[in-house]
Amino acid sequence: MNAFAIPTATALSLPHSIFKSPRLEVRKGAKGKFRVFAVFGGGVDKKNLWGALFDVEDPRSKVPQYKGKFLDACQALEVARYDIQYCDWRARQDVLTIMLLHEKVVEVLNPLARDYKSIGTMKKELAELQEELSQAHRQVHISEARVSATLDKLAYMEELVNDRLLQDRSVTEVDQTSPPPSTSTQSVDVGKRRIPRKNLDVSGPVQPYPPRLKNFWYPVAFSTDLNDDTMIPIECFEEPWVIFRGKDGKPGCVQNTCAHRACPLHLGSVNEGRIHCPYHGWEYTTDGKCEKMPSTRLLSVRIKSLPCFEQEGMIWIWPGNDPPAATIPSLLPPSGFEVHAQIVMELPVEHGLLLDNLLDLAHAPFTHTSTFAKGWSVPSLVKFLTPSSGLQGYWDPYPIDMEFRPPCMVLSTIGISKPGKLEGQNTKQCATHLHQLHVCLPSSKQKTRLLYRMSLDFAPVLKHIPFMHHLWRHFAQQVLNEDLRLVLGQQERMINGANVWNAPVSYDKLGVRYRLWRDALERGVKQLPFQQIERNEED
Ligand code: FES
Ligand SMILES: [Fe+2]
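YS: structure for the whole thing
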């Protein structure tokens, strides 16, 4: 009985003391049957004690009238609340039944009754009562299961409604109700605890890239890395491509596989705007047409090419099957900034995991203890403040603005007041800033081509210091290495089925929004979430 009483009392918010009262103590007998040892009575005013427990109105007359209709989250929540009221009432009725049966047992066992009842009659009555009691106990267990299931449903509905409310909030109302993570003593039992956005499942095995993700302009290289005679081999969405400049100096992107015998073209050379296959010398233009086939009659052959343009110092391609969007977005730093470093790295992690990492600042004082966050204190609360429909905002208490720019870019501006002391000011209050662009190109399976551009709005002289570029690169690599060992570990677990977004908390907001955007894209949702701001700005 107690095994039942405690969880049920918890579920129904009833005081445990009522269920644990010595006046109602039911224990399992030696053979698993229920035996009654004591019941209430003996001068206790049971009406006052128990009356409130069972004096609950039958809620069945108040069932919400939504039968046969599609419900919105609030209506569904109302139905779930009704369910829990009903289960609560039902459970009380079950307990009442048991208690009445107890009273009957007492009556039968009453020594006075023995005077006028034969032993045989008493035995029969007791056996009947015992049967009724065990039926009542079964009923209580069913009620317990129903209460538990209904509470789960209620919690889920409340999450849905809260999520909706969260999305409706403005930037000034962010997370007022979130408990401070570092001071909270709430334990997270990920197996049982209801967590926000529990539908966010990012677990392995890693799936192929969804075709819709290809229908974007992707920056794939920096212009300065592409001379007239150089080739840049890249992998994009698990296909090998090579970028080179045509005779007119414009970049082109063709498949990095010769039409003849599939030799990688980037092993060859570029001459007069054509890429030469190193095997038998076939030559291709930037639109993929084969213009020379030495030692044989020229056949009409073409290899695949992608729309390719150069804008603001970067080479862009359109890998999708849809017609390319009319405009290529701008990724320039704000005015007043000068580019100081442009770095490309091939990283052995899936691009979404890298984006998750870049969109998270709360990890900095724990992860980047040898680089930029050395000596940072751990704030009692980290928040990312953002308009409800946006993918950009700023970190509190850090002077850092951040934006996720679909499909795979992260832009951030960091206010620099004193090295190592970032707290206490917002970005605008800082006199000097560092601007970063991270492009995480989906490369091949579990690989990302990262384009990193760093700009400063101070110390332009740094640009002219010899070897400065090497220093920036060294520093960027050190920071990334601090992340990579962790992200690689996540990836390994993800491949084995772990959900890397199992228990998001309030400071994970930007990463969660990225995942919701990507989920919607993968599911083929027409109106992608969180893009209202950008559209309005374009309007
Ligand atoms: S494989 Fe390229 S020319 Fe033969
Ligand atoms: Fe990091």
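YS: worth flagging: The chain has three domains: 2-168, 218-309, 334-538.
IM: good catch. Also Residues 119-168 form the longest helix (50 residues).
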